[in-house]
Specification:
Layout (H helix, E strand, L loop, with lengths): L1 H16 L7 E2 L9 H15 L4 H13 L30 H14 L6 H14 L9 E2 L23 H10 L4 H8 L6 E3 L4 H5 L16 H7 L8 E3 L11 H7 L6 H4 L5 H11 L4 H14 L21
Antiparallel strand pairs: 1-2, 3-4
Helix pairs in contact: 2-4, 2-5, 3-5, 7-12, 7-13, 10-12
The structure holds 2-acetamido-2-deoxy-beta-D-glucopyranose (3 copies).
The site of one 2-acetamido-2-deoxy-beta-D-glucopyranose has 6 residues, from loops.
Keywords: Calcium, Disulfide bond, Glycoprotein, Heme, Hydrogen peroxide, Iron, Metal-binding, Oxidoreductase, Peroxidase, Secreted, Signal
Family: Belongs to the peroxidase family. Classical plant (class III) peroxidase subfamily.
EC number: 1.11.1.7
Amino acid sequence: MASLTLLLSFALAALLFGFSNAQVMFGFYNYVCPNAEAIVNKEMVDIMAVAPSLAGPLLRMHYHDCFVKGCDASILVNPSAKKATEKVAPPNLSIRGFEVIDRIKEKLEAACPGIVSCADIIALVARDAVALTHGPCYQVETGRRDGTRSVAQDVIGNLVPPTSNITALKAVFLQKGLTLKDLVVLSGAHTIGTSHCSSFSSRLYNATGKGDTDPTLDKNYVPRLKSKCKPNDQKTLVEMDPGSFKTFDVGYFKQVSKRRSLFLSDEALLHDSETRRYVEHQAMASPDEFFRDFAVSMVKMGRLEVLTNEKGEIRKRCGFVN
Ligand SMILES: *[C@@H]1O[C@H](CO)[C@@H](O)[C@H](O)[C@H]1NC(C)=O
Ligand SMILES: *[C@@H]1O[C@H](CO)[C@@H](O)[C@H](O)[C@H]1NC(C)=O
Ligand SMILES: *[C@@H]1O[C@H](CO)[C@@H](O)[C@H](O)[C@H]1NC(C)=O
């Protein structure tokens, strides 16, 4: 009880006086929109029941948002005739589920007008997507505000393409203040969802520019992937963690350790001793430790360059800067 009171007074103080160095915090909406997280969760339960394949894309949306200019919902801004926004930048890895965010935002605006940011909705939706695919239920910090800038070029160098090697992966994560452990843990998100053949087919058909197959792929697995992805197939979707791509578990690490991952950026985790050790350990482990690690890394990622206090705004509609 004491801690709840403390939390409430903290939230109130943060709201009324604005801490000079305010950060996101657990339960930011407890006082100003007490049902915010329950409203998000109820919508997510309904949406996942009819469109479970959105879990992966919705989780990825949070990563894209946070890695490009911070977790500020800049990923959601619609392009105009004059301006290409992050949403239409080529490395968007075909993010889907924007209508989910809009639908939840409408419910939240009806309950608490002008209070809940789109950036927080993305973070809560990612959390619920994980929980609803049998992953960990973790606490998400809130209190982010929405950015007013979204420019396609900002994406360059901030996201890691699926063709990245370990050097490039490390560079981007370290530059964000994240660690190698965060890299390998967050890569575990590939335990749910699918990928277009085009994101990895060079490994099947033209690994070194000589029409060859990537020698780091399990030879016995290659024919199976080739049967799903014909050369130049841009459209077909392949399960990233075959057999359990709708379940958040340690299956991804099993795939990577067996050299059956789809992306070069997954295979790359075997090219650093620390990330390799983690992959091999989790491939044999019960999911508890990975679940705890994932929650920690998601909270860290959710703090990247957040806007709080008087910075940014609370968008009225997530696709449009006010
Ligand atoms: C992603 O980028 C591509 C290439 O610029 C674009 O054609 C596509 O519409 C974008 N996806 C979304 C959801 O806007
Ligand atoms: C890793 O990728 C970067 C960027 O594409 C490239 O410049 C570098 O040469 C690559 N490093 C290795 C060891 O292949
Ligand atoms: C294979 O890669 C090389 C070098 O990138 C390229 O010149 C060639 O056209 C590619 N072949 C096919 C079939 O895509």
